[in-house]
Known about the structure:
Helix Hairpins; Heat Shock Protein 90; 361 residues; alpha+beta; Beta-Lactamase; 5-stranded mixed beta sheet; 6-stranded antiparallel beta sheet
Amino acid sequence: MPVKMGRSFVLGAVARELRSGVLVLDSNARVLYANPYILRYLTFKPDERVEGRELSSIISNPILLKTVGSVLALEGDISNEAVKPGPEETGPVEIEIEIEEAGRSFNVRGVPINENEDFTLLLFLSDITEEKRLESIKRDFVANVSHELRTPLAAIKGYSETLLDGGVDDEKTSREFLRVIDRHATRMSRLIDDLLTLSRLESQQMSIITTPVDLRELLSSTEKSFVKHAGDKGIELSAEIEDDLPVVSGDRDRLEQVVVNLLDNAIKYTPEGGSVRLRAGVENSTIKVEVVDTGIGIPEADMPRIFERFYRVDKARSRDLGGTGLGLAIAKHIVQGHNGTLNVKSSPGVGTTFSFTLKAF
């Protein structure tokens, strides 16, 4: 014979497996049921009972508590945008709000139920923390792009207007102004190129073309291309690359882009008299490449964010040095595309070490 299951048993099983929070309240705002999903976020132990406790003892958000109180008191606080009528004008009011609780963001929907003169309020809490984080990243990205483009555009426009107003007649002045315009136009072009590169990498529209790469040759030639730049700044640049470094499988142009970016950053942020070392060797069956500098270092508070788009430790100095704020984000995506990892260690005033690992061919 088929086994019959009660409706409450089935509903309870469904609520336990939901990947969103479920709270059931009685007319006195006491908890009748809370599923395991929401209890994890509210820092309760899996076996800890919350039935019979007041809602305010497990959730502290004042907006939600006030809204729930209004509904349960049958006040129907229509002035509160979070409480709105259901499909019928005379039907029960429903709750729909966003709250912050336990360091996370939730979308809360409340559905009142009147059944056999018993009043119950169902609260469904959907975790939207990641969605809010992505929204914030998008807003910051648009704001940063606008700011980064506005600065060179303003300079180009200002110097162009001066030339048009008669400055072009002074050969010395016009040549100087044209150099400034060219510098800012180059900066805009570099920023746009980096944006396009990063966009293609993030959307996986830029494929990693893997071929056997002589990493020793790549590192040596890249290091030599920076010797003059480092010397002009009074920085000692050296390379320590193992002679028998294995060949790797990767995209040579993209790997070179990573090394160029790391060396360029190291030289930019190392003061005169400092040193930058490019090292490579075999470590735990992988090839490890390091760029070690004795530069200004990175404060501990900034370390978790340095691979974010446009994030700069010293914004003014970075712009003066010609950085777009996208190089490390691009480097991280390229290394990840080679199934490697890009790491950083730093001490303010002592120096910084960027390292990445690759598998041998």
